Amino acid sequence: MKKVNWIFEKNIFSEYEQQLVDTIKDSDQNCYLLDDSHWNFDFDVKRMSKMFFEKFGSDEMFIRPSNGYKTFAGQLLPKENFDYEFDIFIKTQWVDIDQLVLIAPKKNVREENRFIVISEDGTNRIVDGNKYMIDGELLIERIVDGQALAYANTVVNNYTPDKAFTIDIAKMNDGTYKVLEIGSFCCASWYNMDLEKVVKEINNLAITEYKDYYNL
């Protein structure tokens, strides 16, 4: 039997935190507490960079926007000359320093694959996709990784953010496959996908949505 996973931040509901934890556990479900008090956040990436690198134990950190609009491209920032590299990043990407971002340690990604997904009748289906990057270099030819596609099909129905979206699958240095990110269809590059196939599928989806909305 599958269990519900409860995740909540410590010290937010202090007046009944332990009671809630006990209640969840008594219901035979999983309960996880997120304790970020040791981070001492002031939400300034540049001033907090030293702490991030110490916590991550890495010489590079990954930064991306924490929204669905892809206001800038996710990228790695090095520990060496961080202030200089950060300033270049802000200026060249036209980043609003007040926007919310996601910071994470560098992952050993060897290859990246993107798939376009549409959701119909409660089921997510991959329309097309291919490998678009190897060792940080964009590919100019179309390469379909059958193993990446097979893995994508095993996870594509775990989450549905929209009627059309993208899912990126990474091949790690150890040969395993993992979900890299789920993104907006409208803001994602199609790279070397079959344009006619994608356009046809999206056209059909839009027409179906229109008919459903107006009961046609």
Order of helices and strands: EHEHEEHEEEEHEEH
Number of strands: 10
Distance between the termini: 41 Å
**What is the CATH architecture assignment of the largest domain?**
2-Layer Sandwich
Our estimate of the beta-strand percent is: 25-35%
Say which CATH homologous superfamily of the largest domain is assigned: ATP-grasp fold, B domain
| Spatial shape | globular
Mean pLDDT: 90
The value of Rg in angstroms is 21 Å
**Order of strands, widest sheet:** 8-7-6-9-10
Number of helices: 5
Number of domains: 3
Structural class: alpha+beta
Q: Helical proportion? A: 25-40%
Look up the CATH topology of the largest domain. Answer: D-amino Acid Aminotransferase, Chain A, domain 1
Give structural attributes:
about 220 residues, alpha+beta, D-amino Acid Aminotransferase, Chain A, domain 1, 3 domains, five-stranded antiparallel sheet, three-stranded antiparallel sheet, 5 helices, globular
